[in-house]
Amino acid sequence: MSEGDINEDFYLCEGIWLDKGNKTLTDEDTKHKLDINNIDDMIIIFKREVEAWLFAPMNQLMNDDKDINSSYRPFKNAIFMLFGIFSYIEKIQRYKDGEPYISGDSKSTKILTLGFKNIFGSNKKSEFGDKKISTILENTRHTMMHSGNIGDKVLLNYDYANANAVTYIGSNKNLCKIELNPYSMLLAIAKDFDEYLKNIKDGATRQDNFKTVFKSVYSDEIKLLYKRENFISLKVKI
């Protein structure tokens, strides 16, 4: 793609304004010009994107349920929250591993499995190996993508005050029960995100992995904001 593919000014994400004509990127919250090739400014953009497009809508859905009933019934927004939660799990694991999404990519399940294990790997009631995680993903993310609903093995846990995020009950795949608490899951991914932001610049590999995925997501913007000859050094390693 060429910079001609960007033909108008637009918000890169919440409060980050790209001026095509002047080739500038401005943080409207601070009025500062951002350098999309600077690691600190990359983190500002990434943080704003995830918080505004994933966490803010999920928190709104959660608060909407709580406004209806403080005990979290009927939990009418839970499935939509799960869409956001599983989107986060794959997204953040790709950044951690330096695995940009490519059209036709067949790695999603593998990346999701690792991401799920990293965030929800164990709790007081369940230890999650790959087989259990596979069953959880099959009955949640995969089923939701195709049918808009959760699988019949999944129960939504309404005891949001003291519940585990994920509880897997039973040793038989066909007879198991999976209890999910989107409220607790949201708290867990928020904690994971905070920890990741704090540690992005710890070590060359972690930082390089972040940059690789970031530059794949914003490749057109980078091409526009930098001269063509400088873009050679910014190419994403795929």
Q: How would you spell out the order of helices and strands? A: EEEEHHHHEEEHHHH
* Helical percentage: 40-55%
The N- and C-terminal alpha carbons lie at a distance of: 16 Å
What best-fitting shape do the alpha-carbon axes yield? elongated
Taking all Cα atoms into account, the compactness measure Rg is 20 Å
Q: What percent strand?
A: 5-15%
Question: What count of helical segments does DSSP give?
Answer: 8
Low-confidence parts, pLDDT < 50 over ≥5 residues? 228-238
Strand order of the largest sheet: 1-2-3-4
* Averaged pLDDT: 85
Computed structural class: alpha+beta
* Biggest pleated-sheet summary: 4 strands, antiparallel
Number of strands: 7
Protein described:
Residues 228-238 have low confidence and may be disordered. The chain is built from eight helices and seven strands, in the order E-E-E-E-H-H-H-H-E-E-E-H-H-H-H. It is elongated, with a radius of gyration of 20 Å. It has a domain at 74-202. With 238 residues, it is α+β, with helices and mostly antiparallel strands.
Summarize the structure.
With 238 residues, the chain is of the alpha+beta class. Helix content is 52%, strand content 11%. The C terminus is likely disordered.
List keywords for this structure.
238 residues; alpha+beta; four-stranded antiparallel beta sheet; 8 helices; 7 strands; disordered C terminus
Q: What is the element layout, followed by pairings?
A:
Blueprint: E1 10-13, E2 16-19, E3 24-27, E4 32-33, H1 39-68, H2 78-97, H3 108-120, H4 130-147, E5 154-156, E6 166-169, E7 177-180, H5 182-199, H6 204-217, H7 219-225, H8 228-231
Parallel strand pairs: 5-7
Antiparallel strand pairs: 1-2, 2-3, 3-4, 6-7
Helix pairs in contact: 1-2, 1-5, 2-3, 2-4, 2-5, 2-6, 3-4
